[in-house]
């Protein structure tokens, strides 16, 4: 599956000809200053929770592309109030068959609020199943035994986990999460953007390798196959 990394927790998957974008936070990320947001393709945008570093560019990209934006009910309501007519609500426990594949919304142990401090609903992760492959994006989740339930819905080919620690899982917890769901390939996200989540990349790569796993840390703007 073709995966493009846009920095922080923002990435896109190309599935069955559709461009699926997750947690768009680009224009306010100095590490992604070379990314032209207006050139990003998106047929769908999935938002894991309401924190600004996951939702900041959702409205702009949705207006540029006409993408359907999927998030919990509070995010759906916020998007609708901000002029996004193609918003779509999905709370944990929900599942829907889109034209690229099926998405199951699952719990993510994390806080969630909009930039003004208002309630952002429950934080979410997404389990994506398609003819071209399956994966689990945990959102900003802490390690939880709930992750074991992912394999009840499908067996992922890879996972996308935060590894920056402090606000989310760190490397050690992400390794445990990978073993819980039986994947050997992990795309690491949510690191380096802020001073308190700086990652020792080589140590992280080595720790995964020593655990029999492979950690992928693509350059911002680059595309890899998973």
TrEMBL record:
InterPro entries (UniProt xref): Metallo-B-lactamas (IPR001279), RibonucZ/Hydroxyglut_hydro (IPR036866), UPF0173_UPF0282_UlaG_hydrolase (IPR050114)
Domain Metallo-beta-lactamase: 7-190
Pfam families: Lactamase_B_2
Coiled coil: none
Domain of life: Bacteria
NCBIfam families, per the entry: PRK00685.1 (NF001911)
Protein name, as recorded: L-ascorbate metabolism protein UlaG, beta-lactamase superfamily
Organism: Chryseobacterium arachidis
